Amino acid sequence: MSENVPKGPASYFPSIEKKYGRPVSEWQELIRSSPLTKHMELVSWLKSEHGLGHGHANALVAHTLAEGK
């Protein structure tokens, strides 16, 4: 088994890029530029405005917010 297998929220990134056709970096820029700051507000926004599923939206928000800490 490879040791370079992403763990945590990043494990969703390949399927996010494949399903929605945009690189994770674009999603992260959208999240960073949003006036929303709370985790679940951002998740709800990605779901309602951009059509992401809950798990994918949650993974993107969790990873992006963790980078800012």
From TrEMBL:
InterPro entries per the UniProt record, alphabetical: DUF4287 (IPR025629)
Identification of the protein by name: DUF4287 domain-containing protein
Pfam families xref list: DUF4287
Source organism of this protein record: Streptomyces gardneri
